[in-house]
Amino acid sequence: MTTPSSDILIIGGGVAGLTLALAVADTHSVALIRPAQDDKGASRWAQGGIAAVLSPDDHVDAHVNDTLIAGDGLCDEAAVRFTVESGPEAIAWLIDSGVPFTPDHAADARYPFHLTREGGHNARRIIHADDATGRAVVDTLLKRVMAHPNIRQHHQLSVTGLLQDAQGACIGANALDEQQQWHALTARHTVLATGGASGLYLHTTTPAPSSGEGMIMAAELGATLMNLEFQQFHPTCLYDPEGPAFLISEAVRGEGGYLLNAAGERFMPALDARAELAPRDVVARAIDAEIQQQALPHVWLDVRHLGVEAIHHHFPTIQAHCASRGLDITQQPIPVVPAAHYSCGGVATDLSGATGVPGLFAIGETACTGLHGANRMASNSLLECLVFARSCAQTIQAAAPVQQDFDVKPPTLPAAEGDIDAQVAALRQQLRVTMSQHVAIVRSVAGLASASAVLDDIDSNLAEISATQTTADLQRLQQLTNLARLTVIAAQQRHESRGLHFSSDWPGHAANSQPSRLTLRDLTRH
């Protein structure tokens, strides 16, 4: 029997991981794996804000109802209510932590901080820090993490798999450093806060998107994956094929931005009474349809009518970034296109983040709590990170110690030979192109079958390469291929259109629709 490296191992340093680390560090030792790319991940790039019932004019039931409507019949209402009811306390904690939310100086303000409105919400309930909320929250929490003596950060490690004892419990993770040396990090509790799976697609809204690594690592230990078919595509990503990804926040439409087609005409009012403020799946499909019908590979998002002063006030980050790309949004509309943005599915958990695998938790986008159902409502994502990180912390702190064997040995990998790196890169690109072509905004039976065939070929190629040599990148691509194949299976099994899953062959709702649930064993059944 050996002593674990830490009480709690947290994999991922976005809002969920940082919040959990701070919530448990006073009572437990924490190892936080926060790779450099976390600074380019989803949390820091979240622009819009955090949804919560904060104004005296708002109500918990209203937020719950809006979320249920957006989730299109597949939300877990208990999870929705738990999240919404826990929201105000989580926001108060952020305010006490020093997050510089934008104040509301209006004489008739009903709440000290400015609240905006976004798609799907029927009230102003989005608290924000200008248009860079994620960055403000991450920077504030990170300063506190760096100052806490019980939190040890690991920046140079990349987790490749989870560790499991003879009884099936998770006892930590294996990781590689930059010199390709292995490290076994053991812990009594392991928490995945690794983000979503948008990196499985070619176009995303973050510069360094996760590709579902945490999801598939949990599945390798026996965890259930839920609702993988519901991948949200943000309607408005800056269209610039030559430059890095950049999200144009939902708040731009919330404050009155118009979507225009190639003819310079608004198209949303004719499709939905909520127009540009319709839920994201509705807007993304509408934009996709416009793009298919016109010569341009994008549509336009126009804010010129709001005026220079309003644009400066509400969207300083977006304006500055667009200006750095040669675009003056006070004088010209913004070219935008839908891009993979958020995974509503992930590792199935309860209200504490527990996965069903003893010792293993998942929080944030890598988890599927039932909050989002078939479609996530705007700005509920950071709320979920905060609420479930704090709930997870309470559960871990209340847990009694369990006798476990932490005696593990890191694996060994032979050095790569020949052009294996180039082969792996080419296969990964093929995977992303396939997912974008056939498993994106609009799907079909034929398209999903084509995707399945291509992914099976990639799997066969990986098996052939692995027969003679193995590298960490090769293993990672095998994991991502497995996750992509499970995503296709989930989509093939849903014979309807619901939320983010739209099938041209099954355009209507099915009766008695249920969340999808898959395990790694399902790959052998197809």
TrEMBL record:
Residues 428-507 form the Fumarate reductase/succinate dehydrogenase flavoprotein-like C-terminal domain. Catalyzes the oxidation of L-aspartate to iminoaspartate. It catalyses: L-aspartate + O2 = iminosuccinate + H2O2. It is found in: Cytoplasm. Its main location: cytoplasm. Residues 500-526 are annotated as: Disordered. Residues 7-382 form the FAD-dependent oxidoreductase 2 FAD-binding domain. Pathway: Cofactor biosynthesis; NAD(+) biosynthesis; iminoaspartate from L-aspartate (oxidase route): step 1/1. This is L-aspartate oxidase. Keywords: FAD, Flavoprotein, Oxidoreductase, Pyridine nucleotide biosynthesis. It comes from the Bacteria. Its EC number is 1.4.3.16. Transmembrane segments: none annotated. Belongs to the FAD-dependent oxidoreductase 2 family. NadB subfamily. The gene is nadB. Its cofactor is FAD. Signal peptide: none annotated. One of its GO terms (molecular function) is L-aspartate oxidase activity.
